[in-house]
Amino acid sequence: MDQFGALEDQVPVAAATREAVILLAKSAFAAAPHQDMQKLAELAAVQYPQAHIIYAFSEQGRPSFKQALLELTEQSFDQILVLPLVLPMEPSFQLWITKALRRWQQESDKSWPEIKLGATLDKSPHWAELLKNLLQQTVQSIPLPPLEKPFNEGSLIPAQKYRMLVCEGRACQAAGADAIWCHLRNEQERQKLRIVGDGMMSAQTSCLGPCNLAPVVQVFPDGTWYGGVTEKAIDRIITEHLLGGQPVEDYAYSASGKKQRLRKV
């Protein structure tokens, strides 16, 4: 199986299926988590055979939530159920996912099926039983080495010129910062941005300040502020700023020390 879990390699859809389910996890950085999600999708397909079951990731990993959703809207489903497999659940999750869905639908030129959001794991009546089962499982002891005098080993200082900070403050989370982070990280991996051009690194950060411009991204070393960031904006920032050396004025805001309103792009 392709380590990125391409949709076409996941559980096949039956001809009469009118419902699709997205098992939504947070992130995956290697092949093993994708394989685990594939197993969950196969298990869900046995338990819920009337639906086409796939998986996706909200933060990093492929397929991303947006990619999976848009591919499903191209097919003839009456409804799509999003089942979040995330613990703990952030209070802003339902808010940002609703805003992201509305924005993606507005950007699309096709009609969408009904989208439903499933209950979170902590709402399951079997949660206590599951915890009890896990606590009673035989666990493996972790051997700890004897204490030794710490070795003062050096550390490499990253040579990449650019640092891209994605705000994860409350306002930015509610505006869909997780979806923006997901797109950035997937593009960073796909385009090998750490080693292409002057190189870049990315990080999530607590509140950056300009909450009314959410979602907010800041690019260093020049410190350029970007507001109202979408996936399209991330693509332009990568192409024009990180690789081309020129800030994207359509989304950029000057560090004037004065209040600024979010512009429509």
UniProtKB/TrEMBL annotation:
This protein's record includes keyword Transmembrane: no
InterPro entries in alphabetical order: CbiX-like (IPR002762), NADP_DH_HndA-like (IPR028431), Thioredoxin-like_sf (IPR036249)
Highest taxon above the source species: Bacteria
Coiled-coil regions listed: none
Pfam families per the UniProt record, alphabetical: 2Fe-2S_thioredx (PF01257), CbiX (PF01903)
Keywords: Lyase, Metal-binding
Protein's UniProt name: NADH:ubiquinone oxidoreductase
Species assigned in the record: Paenochrobactrum glaciei
